[in-house]
Amino acid sequence: MRFALTPDQVAFRDAARELLAKECAPSVVRAAWDAPAGQLDRGVWDSLDAMGVLALLVPESDGGLGLDETYLVPILEECGRAALPHPVVETAMVAAPLLGAGAGMVSTDLGGPLIPCAADSDVLLLRAGGGALVAVPPASVSLTPVAVTDRARRTATATATADATATATRTNTEPATDSRRSDDEMSQVRSVTAATRTNTEPATDSRRSDDDVSQVRSVAGTNSEPATDSRRSDDEMSQVRSVPFTRTNTEPATDSRRSDDDVSQVRSGSTATTTNSEPATDSRRSDDEMSQVRSVAGSAALVTDDAGAIERALDRGALGTAALLVGLGQAMLDLTVGYVTERHQFGKPVGSFQAVKHHLADAALALELARPAVHRAAWSLAHDAATAPRDVSMAKAMASDAAELAGRKALQCHGAIGYTVEADLHLYLKRTWALARSWGDSAHHTDRVATAIGAHSVQSC
Amino acid sequence: MDLTWSAEEERFRAEARGWLEANLAEWRADCGGEPASGDTRDGFAQHLRWERRLFDGSWAAVSWPSEHGGRGASLWEWLLFEEEYYRAGCPARVTQNGIFLLAPSIFEFGTAQQQAGILRRMAAGDDLWCQGWSEPNAGSDLAAVTSRARRVDGGWVLDGQKTWTTRGAFCTHLFGLFRTDPDSDRHRGLTYLLVPLDTPGVTVRGFGRLDGDEGFAEVFFDGAELADDAVPGGVVLGETDGGWSVAMATAGSERGLTLRSPGRFLATAERVVALARERGDAGQQRRAATAWMHAEAYQLHTLATVTKLAAGAKPGAEASLTKLWWSELDVELHELALDLLGPEAEIDGPWSKAWQFALAGPIYAGTNEIQRNIAAERLLGLPR
Fold first, then answer.
1. Residue A384 and residue A401: Cα distance in Å, rounded?
2. Given A6, A352, A362, which is nearest B1 (Cβ)?
3. Which end of chain A, N or C, is less surrounded by CB atoms within 10 Å?
4. Which one has a higher pLDDT value, A267 or B18?
5. B110, B233 in Cβ contact below 8 A?
6. Pairwise CA distance, residues B99 & B231, whole Å
C-alpha cells in the first residue's frame, strides 16, 4: 500500500504546472472567449503536445509515452487549475487511447449534446446510431455555435452525423484489397486501424476461433497470421499490437455489396458488424498521413462500436473531467484566499473574519477529500480494477460537488468584485458549472455508485 | 502508487478477523444478552471484560511494542485491525481515551519509567484514564483553564474543577492541564499532570449526557494532595509549566486518525446502505451512496496520510480538516439512518443511541468552529 504520487508523477505534474503558469495565464483564457471560430490560439496546446501530454496514454511503440492514468490525471488537475481553453480531456483521455498518437485536437459530443471547441478541432469524435463512435473531420458536419456562459468553451452542436455514420460503415465493410486505394481511404483506414484492430487478416474465415483471436492479441514480434501483404513492415505490426482495446469481431465482413438495409442495421447497433477488414498495407505510411484525416471532407471512420470500449472511453472522460474540476476548485480557492487577505473592511482583512474563514475551510475540506477519490480512480483505471467504473463515478460525483461548493464560497467571499467580468473568478466559475454537469452530473454518478454498492433495491432498479 | 495490500497484511487482516469474530461471540454470550452501553455502570463493567479479552489476545493496542502489551503492528496493520474491528460489530472502546489520547503523548514525552509503569496497565484495563481538560469556563478556549496545582514538598496541591469528562465516573485516573505558574496566563505556565482519582480531596460526580447515560463527570479538586510518585515515574508528563505543547500533541491525536479511524465509518456506511436497500426510496438510496462515498473518501484520505506518516512526516493541521470530515460524516450517516427508520427512529435502540452520540462529534475534540478556524489560519494562511 502506498497512496501517493511517485517522484516521476510529481515531476511530470510540476512540469505541466510550470508550463501552464507561463503559457496559460488568465489572459489566454480570455482570448479564447473572443477568438473567431476556427482561430483558437494553439500556443499552450502545442507546448502540451510537445511535452507528450496529449499522447501520454498511447503506447510508446505508437508514438506515445506509454504511461497510464496515474500520470495523466494529476496533469489534468493542473489544466483545470489554469482553466485551459482546449479539449484536453477529450483528446488525451478519451481519443488518444482510441485513435493513437497524432490525431490532433479532438472534440467530442460524448460528454453531452454540446461539443466544446468543435470548430477549432482536427477531429470530432461523435456518437453515431447504435452508440458507435465515429471520427469525422469538423468540415464534414454542420456545426452550429451555441452561446454558453463560458465562451472559452467555444461550444457548438453538430448535425448530419447520421450520414457520417453511413459513410464510415460503408468504407469499413469493403474489403480493402484494392491496390489503387486512395490516400483518402488510407487515412481513414489508418484511423480505424488504430481503434478497431483484431481484424488483422482478411476476415474471410467464418470459423475463426477464440484461439485465433487471442493469438492475434498476443502476437509478440512474429506475425503468426497469414499476412496479406508481404511488404508489411514491423512498424505496422507494432501498430496492430499496440492498440489498446481488444475487440473480438468474428463476423466475416466480406460483402462489398452490402445493402442499405445492412447499413441501417449498423446504425441502429443491432448487429456486430464491421471494422476494418484488413490491416493497412502501405509500409510507407507515416504520421503525416494522420494529418490527412483532418482534411478529409465528407467522410467518417468508425472508431469502435464495442460497448465495453465505449464505456471505458466514457469513464475516462468522466475521470478526466473530475480532475479538471478539482483543479478548478483549487484555483478558485487560491484566488479567494489571495483576495480576502488583501481586501480590507472594518479596518481589517476580510479573511480575518470567522464567517469568511469558515466558508473557505469548507471549500478546502471538500477539495481535500475529493482529490484522493480522483487519484484512486486513476489507479483503478490504470490497473483495470473491477471497481473502476464505481471509482470513476465516485470521483466525478465528489469532484463536481467539491468544485461547485468551492465556486459558491469563492463568489460569496469575493463579494461584488467577484460578480464582475473584470475579475478573473468567473473564468473558473463558469467552467466549473459546465463541467460539473458534463460527462454525467453528480446525481448520475451517485446513482451509478448506488447501484455498484447495492444501495438500490431490486424494485427500484 | 500501489493500492493493494501485501500478502502479509492480508494475513494480518485474516488473523484479526478470525480472532474478533470468535471472541465477540463469546463475549456477547458472557453478557447474557445484548450488552449495555459502555457509558453506564453495568455496561462499563461488561465492556471492561471485553477490553481484558483484547489485552489477553494482544489486540488491545496493536501498534504498541509488545513490551507494553501491543504487538508492534505498523500503522497500516492498525488501520486493517480497526476496519475488521468495526466490520465485525465490536463494541466502542471504553479505554479509548487512555489508549488513543494519552498514550501517544506518553510515548512522545514520557520517561522510560512512566512508559513502563503506565502503558501496560492502561492496555490491560487495570488503570482507566479519563481526560481532564475542559472546565466550566474553558471549553473551546482551552488556554483559559484556571484549575491550579501548587508546588509543595514532595508533590502538588490541586484546586479547581474539570467537567464534561467522558466516563469520568468509571475511571481510575485523570490526565489534564493545571496552572502551575500562578502569574501566568493563556497557554504559558500550564503543566500536564497525571492524577489518580482516589487522591484525597478529589471528588467525582457523574451526570447524564444527552442520551441519558452517565457518560459525563465533573471532577472537583479541593486541596487534593498529589504525591510526585502517585503514578509510576512521576505525575508530571513533559516539563513543568510546559504542558501546553504536550496537550497539543494529544489534541492532534484526538482530531486525527488515532481517535476515529475510517473503519468505523465504513462499517456504519455499509449498514446504512443495507438499510437503504431494504426500506429506502430512490432519494434515500442516493443519499446512502453519497454517505458511503464520504466514508470511502475518508478511508482514501487516511491511506494518503498514513503513506506520508510512514515516510516520516509529522501529523499537522490537516487533522483539523479530518476532524471536520469524520464528525460531519457521522451525523450524515445517522441522520439518514433515522430517516430510513421513519417513525421507528424514536425507539431507544442502537441507531438512536448512535445518532445522539454522533451529534457530539462536531463538539468534542475541539468544536468544528475551532477546527474551521485552525484550517483557515494554518492551512490556508488567512490572517488571525
1. 26
2. A6
3. C
4. B18
5. yes
6. 17
A58 φ/ψ sector (left φ>0, alpha ψ -120 to 50, else beta)? beta
- pLDDT of B47: 97
Only one residue has cell 503559457, namely A23
- C-alpha A445/C-alpha A184 separation (Å) is 40
Four-CA torsion B170, B173, B179, B181, nearest 10 degrees: 160
Across chain A, mean pLDDT equals 78
Q: For A134, left (φ over 0), alpha (ψ -120 to 50), or beta? A: beta
| Cell reading at A433 | 458549472
Which distant-in-sequence residues (6+ apart) come within 8 Å of B171 by Cβ? B128, B129, B130, B197
CA gap B43, B297 in Å, rounded: 33
Sheet holding A301-304, edge to edge: A106-108, A123-127, A133-136, A301-304
| Per-residue pLDDT reduced to its tens digit, B39-83 | 998 999 999 999 999 999 999 999 999 999 999 999 999 999 999
d(CA A162, CA A136): 11
Lookup result for grid cell 439518514: B336
Per the annotation, the verdict on B270 as an active-site residue is: no
Between A33-42, A129-138, B44-53, the lowest mean confidence (pLDDT) is in A129-138
Q: Which of A373, A379, A453 sits opposite B289 (nearest CB)?
A: A453
pLDDT at A260: 38
The whole-angstrom separation of Cα B207 and Cα B167 is 10
Burial (CB count <10 Å: 0-12, 13-18, 19+), residue A207: exposed
Comparing CA positions, the residue from B96, B8, B7, B116 lying closest to residue B47 is B96
pLDDT for residue A290 is more than 50: no
For residue A330, the one-letter residue type is Q
Output the pLDDT for position A164: 52
CB B353 within 8 A of CB B211: yes
A2 and B298: CB-CB below 8 Å? no
Kind and range of the H or E run holding A155: strand A155-159
DSSP bridge partners of B242:
B190
Q: State the Cα–Cα distance between residues A127 and A124, nearest whole angstrom.
A: 10
For A:282-311, CB contacts with B below 8 A are none
Helix/strand/coil (H, E, C) string of A341-360? HHCEECCEEHHHCHHHHHHH
Give me the total of CB pairs closer than 8 Å, taking one residue from chain A and one from chain B: 156
Residues of chain B below pLDDT 50: none
The DSSP call for residue B36 is: P
Inspect the interface and report whether the beta carbons of B298 and A369 lie closer than 8 Å: yes
Catalytic hit among B51, B82, B254, B332:
B254
pLDDT band (50, 70, 90) for residue A337 = very high
Cell of A304: 469502435
Q: What b/e sequence results for B241-266 when a residue is b if at least 16 CB atoms lie within 10 Å of its CB, and e otherwise? A: ebbbebbebbbbbbbbbbbbbbbbbb
Q: List B150's β-bridge partners, or say none.
A: B157
ipTM: 0.95
